[in-house]
Amino acid sequence: MTILVTGGAGFIGSNFVLDWLAESAEPVVNLDKLTYAGNLQNLASIADDSRHRFVQGDIGDYEQVSQLLQQHQIRAVVNFAAESHVDRSIHGPEDFIQTNIVGSFRLLEAVRHYWNALPSDAKAEFRFLHVSTDEVYGSLEQTDPPFAETNQYQPNSPYSASKAASDHLVRAYHHTYGLPVLTTNCSNNYGPYHFPEKLIPLCIQNALAGKPLPIYGDGQQIRDWLYVKDHCSAIRRVLAAGKIGEVYNVGGWNEKANLDVVHTLCAILDQLKPRADGLPYASQISYVTDRPGHDRRYAIDAGKLERELGWKPAETFESGIRKTVQWYLDHQDWVGNVLSGDYQSWMAKNYSGRI
Ligand code: NAD
Ligand code: DAU
């Protein structure tokens, strides 16, 4: 038995592969295009593990995916592969359409044809788990209840629209062709190997480098934070016990305003690595022009996953964020390696126009 993980060199995918191999004996084939967000260093600790087979490739390559499915007699696919950064989707949506929509479609086609030809027992056991986001549900008002699986889709950015499209395709492949799919819609993750273009790792890194900590708009936008390893355990649980065709929201019950998140990071850094001049890191906070179309609030009701499959996050925000800051302090070599020329040009593009 082998599973196929796509996007397993990215932030969540690599955490998932590492956790999977720590928890299970089952081999993993890891298909990743290695875009700017994919990093084989995330997988360095399993470089000699014969249960992990890395393959560079695109989920949109029907032939390659079909060949991998056949060759390894894959019994489940976990699809993380995506373009994932909202700001990049605003500057250039094309890659998001290609990977998140066209790529997901071609992946589904390859999986459908493979699955159709399986013997009946393997066909019944097969699963396609699609990893998606809470952003497909749009933005909440302060007094709205958190997103339930039944909420209407109202995506607001090119990123969330492309993820919504992929969710709809996954749903359609179940209803039309009977493909045994599962979908998870998760809130904001944080933790090890998070690419430093996203709020938390960016602010840790900028703080240590003495650079401004850019807060979009008034910093009162709310996100619901989940430690990445809790997301991985949720996916394992849904893969093992989720009901075919169902959607499961995944979240940490941790709604925080962005400004509060950054103040928390600063306070932890003040304790763990105080600035040489004795000033607090919060003195580096800098308000910049808001993200266009910025969603005000996300919050996830993860009650279905808890009630039906018994999953709960293990970390609180306080424990998870402290671990995360410590991880970045301990892995400055990893950060140094991802701050490549491409990263520098993205930072210039995204932040130089903001005041
Ligand atoms: P990421 O950007 O860190 O990693 C994405 C990975 O996918 C990279 O390794 C990249 O090389 C790979 N990839 C991109 N295009 C590909 C293609 N065409 N074929 C094969 N591989 C390709 O993203 P992430 O934050 O790890 O997110 C993983 C998944 O989880 C995404 O589907 C995202 O929408 C979803 N998600 C993310 C979060 C979050 O907070 N980061 C929350 C909820 C859901
Ligand atoms: O909600 C799940 C989503 O969370 C995932 O689907 C996405 O893949 C993931 O990137 C993340 O999207 P966000 O846009 O919420 O994450 P990001 O880290 O980019 O931003 C978090 C919040 O912080 C958001 O309100 C924008 C704000 N922000 C972000 C950056 C990069 C700032 O204020 N300043 C910044 O420099």
Structure description:
- The chain has helices at 11-23, 62-71, 86-91, 94-116, 120-125, 158-177, 199-208, 228-241, 258-272, 303-309, 317-330, 332-338, 341-351; strands spanning 2-6, 28-32, 52-56, 74-79, 127-133, 181-186, 188-190, 213-216, 222-227, 247-250, 255-257, 285-288.
- The protein has 355 residues and is of the alpha/beta class.
- It has a domain at 3-193 and 226-253 and 293-315: 3-Layer(aba) Sandwich (Rossmann fold), CATH 3.40.50.720.
- It has a 7-stranded parallel β-sheet, with helices on both faces.
- The radius of gyration is 20 Å and the shape is globular.
- The mean pLDDT is 97.
- Bound molecules: nicotinamide-adenine-dinucleotide and 2'deoxy-thymidine-5'-diphospho-alpha-D-glucose.
Summarize the structure.
This protein is an alpha/beta fold and 355 residues long.
Descriptors:
355 residues, alpha/beta, Rossmann fold, 7-stranded parallel β-sheet, globular, binds nicotinamide-adenine-dinucleotide, binds 2'deoxy-thymidine-5'-diphospho-alpha-D-glucose
Query: What name does the CATH topology of the domain at 3-193 and 226-253 and 293-315 carry?
Result: Rossmann fold
CATH architecture of the domain at 3-193 and 226-253 and 293-315: 3-Layer(aba) Sandwich
Order of helices and strands: EHEEHEHHHEHEEHEEHEEHEHHHH
Over all CA atoms, what is the radius of gyration? 20 Å
Structural class: alpha/beta
Low-confidence stretches: none
Shape: globular
Helix count? 13
| CATH secondary-structure class of the domain at 3-193 and 226-253 and 293-315 | Alpha Beta
